[in-house]
Write a structure and sequence with these properties.
Blueprint: E1 14-18, H1 34-47, E2 51-54, E3 58-59, E4 71-75, H2 82-94, E5 98-103, H3 113-121, E6 133-134, E7 157-161, E8 167-172, H4 187-202, E9 207-210, H5 250-262, E10 269-272, H6 279-282, E11 293-294, H7 297-300, H8 306-322, E12 328-330, H9 339-342, H10 365-379, E13 385-389, H11 410-414, H12 459-463, H13 469-483, E14 491-492, E15 500-505, E16 508-513, E17 520-521, E18 526-530, E19 537-538, E20 542-547
Parallel strand pairs: 1-2, 1-13, 2-5, 5-9, 9-10, 10-11, 12-13
Antiparallel strand pairs: 3-4, 6-8, 7-8, 14-15, 15-16, 16-20, 17-19, 18-20
Helix pairs in contact: 1-2, 4-5
This protein binds alpha-D-glucopyranose.
Length: about 550
Amino acid sequence: MSTAAPAEWWRTAVIYQIYPRSFSDASGDGIGDLAGITSRLNDLAALGVDAIWLSPFYTSPQKDAGYDVADFTDVDPLFGTLADFDEMVARAHELGLRVIVDIVPNHSSDQHAWFKAALAAGEGSPERARYVFRDGRGEAGELPPNNWHSVFGGPAWTRSVNADGTPGQWFLHLFDSTQPDFDWTNPEVLEEFDRVLRFWLDRGADGFRVDVAHGLIKADGLPDFTFDDDANSMGGTEGPQSPYFGLEGVHDIWRRWRRVVDEYEGDRVLAAEAWVLPLSKMAKWVRSDEMHQAFNFAYLETDWKAADLRGVIDESLEEFGKVGAPSTWVLSNHDVVRHASRLALSAENPQGHGIGPKSLGLPDPVLGLRRGRAASALMLSLPGSAYVYQGEELGLPEAIDIPDEARQDPTWFRTEGERYGRDGCRVPLPWSADAPAYGFNTTGDTWLPQPAEWAGLARDVQLDDPSSTLNLYGRALRLRRELGLAEGEVEWIDGVPEGALAFRTGGIEVWAAVDPGVEVPLPDGEVLLASAPVTDTIPADTTVWLRR
Ligand code: GLC
């Protein structure tokens, strides 16, 4: 692998998301860890990705799988130690892989020292002013201060208890009640996060994936707002301005962070998780003095329909291009139904709701994998930077049949089982078909059960099968690099059958037969990559890369 770092590596990078709980478990306790990650970095380098992004491994009571952080500058013993982190970074850098860590600025855990101090210090104290405490409504303050809902269901407020046991003020939590929101108008909060950024940059992190980067600032007076609960739970829908997502004030914070990151050598980056639409609005997060990248959730949420895909690809290139940022492309992550299942769902399934045994419109697994592979082959041909979520290179489907009693996502509890939530995309990875826990560890314990059919999807089985999804990804990533596709430009080929897409980029043609039943005559040329077998036609749900 070439270690020569091109300028602004992030413009073209393929970034692999590691979900530490479920990647590889060296300790054998059923939850993945940093030592497990280090031991498998070879495999990721061999796959051909440029960087890894790790979901949180910080000190945390794990009420939201680590997105409830009790100490932003330490490693939870569940995942190892700071020394394990250093070792992981050193190994990654040796292999030419950059390391991006997650930062969670909207909220802390209720076990964070600051929140404990806020509860102890009482009303009106400077300790409370780091969070959003308010008096309740109603005669005795028995009603929440406003009508906001938590992203995970139920009210966004919880009433605190005073030192003498009487009911006290309420605190805001856009997520679980164990995740109190910070007050980002308080300079102490700003300074503390500068420190956190520097802590990880000093330790060699190449950048940050910024959690809920459309949150943080709330509208003055915290006005009531009725959010459509059937919509994307993170707010990623066009609609009236929310008083807590996508406010202009957040941009000052990102400018400040950019200045901190720019103090460091080596092209360190900020990547926004900002569920805001339309893309012209999301692009504000990546103006030249703010972040470097934003996850393209508009692309992720696009149905598997040729016309829609063409539309979102054009819009992405145009809107990110206008602010001088690369477009990104993403199909899966730890919050959404895996795309090898999602693309074959036949009922509406808003982000965050998840699927389980009783969901409507459950996917046909064969169709799902076929579409998933076609979608991945299309995504990896596009110019800019792409995100790959662990397991998608194995074609893993969403785990649907997780028993109720094994579920862990706070969404499941806060909606009393009405929404399954996100456990189905977080199941520990299968590495070896014949080992305990399919090679995730040596003890066989896993924090979520692995489906029996995953033996057939294990990495070792796929390595030996030229037609496997793993080899499809490997080939796509190699060709992407060799052909310079990430620096390419999409030039649409007109006159293709309705329901199909075709474009030129990087000296090749990419053809995708997308809509149901569409068949495209295979153009002359050398097939470099095909997501499914082709004859003299490209059948539906197939993407082909061609040299003509
Ligand atoms: C982000 C994370 C998600 C988490 C939430 C609260 O959306 O991706 O997993 O639950 O923020 O931190």
